[in-house]
Amino acid sequence: MVILSLFMAPGTNGFGLPQMSESEMLERLLSEDPNRTDKEPEIASSIGEQMLLMGLRTMPRSLRVRIRDISSRVPLGNAILVGGGIGHLSAWLFDLWCGVPTDENQNARPRPDSFIIVEEGARFGVIIDRLIRRYNAETWSRVIAKPWSEITAEVTSWSAAAASLPSSARPSDIPLPVSLVIVDLPDSERSAAASSAFDILSPDGLLIVPEPEVPTGDVGVPDEGQEPTEAQTKVIAFNQWISFIRRVSDNHSVSFVELSGGTLAVIRRIA
């Protein structure tokens, strides 16, 4: 495992961790948790098998494990998962925060004040809602079946208009402030979703995004009036990703965690 930290904003600390340097804080935050295994939780395993049968994209296990480990260390307020699918990554997080639903003797675990799962597909949203109820998490978790771009546009528009109101009086699909956003969308949608997620993060908020696939070879450019090929679409998506990273790296903390199944970008918003 390699942690590469880039563009650390000077004089910062965060997350309520003991006073330490930025690099020490990131090392602790992003490292593997030696007290946890990479064994897939039972419910998540069943969902993964369903995804294979349905031909759905799955996030590599190494990335799921590290997202769980990072989430376990972040003092959570309001958390959001963008791209719920049929609940695979959600099940990993619910296992972290709730444990095994059938174990009545387990101790209460730290969990977010709220957990919003954004899944545009209504049918998948119904499946996620069942998952929430299976973990008895209805009081603090819910699924929103709307496009993420629409949700963030609404938040941005009313935030300026209602800045003088108390947070409890401001209408929103998502509770604010947002302390953690995880993006699990196809490469072609990932950069735009990450950009809008970053814009609504609270100071010291954390954004976790798997890096899009790095394109290789010369794929050319689309002919005028023609749709780009799959290879060209990958190049377009990666260029958008690079533009986003350049935008946020000027004044915020950007780190990359290289794992066997891919790379996680972890971005901390500096006030």
Short description:
By secondary structure, this protein is α/β, with parallel strands linked by helices.
Provide a descriptive summary of the structure in words.
This protein is of the alpha/beta class. It is built from 8 helices and 8 strands; from the N terminus they run E-H-H-H-E-H-E-H-E-H-E-H-E-H-E-E. It has helices at residues 22-30, 42-54, 61-73, 88-98, 122-134, 148-161, 187-200, 230-249; strands at residues 2-6, 78-82, 114-118, 141-144, 178-183, 201-210, 253-259, 262-268. The protein has an 8-stranded mixed β-sheet with strand order 1-7-8-6-5-2-3-4, sandwiched between helices. The relative contact order is 0.16.
Task: List the domain count as a whole number.
Answer: 1
Q: The CATH topology, please?
A: Rossmann fold
Low-confidence stretches: 1-17
How far is the N terminus from the C terminus? 29 Å
Number of strands: 8
Strand order of the largest sheet: 1-7-8-6-5-2-3-4
Q: What sequence of helices (H) and strands (E) makes up the elements?
A: EHHHEHEHEHEHEHEE
Number of separate helices: 8
The proportion of strand residues reads 15-25%
CATH class: Alpha Beta
Most strands sheet: 8 strands, mixed
Provide the CATH architecture.
3-Layer(aba) Sandwich
> What is the SS-derived class?
alpha/beta
Overall shape: globular
What is the mean pLDDT?
86
In the CATH hierarchy, what is the superfamily?
Vaccinia Virus protein VP39
The percent range for helix content is: 25-40%
The rounded Rg comes to 19 Å
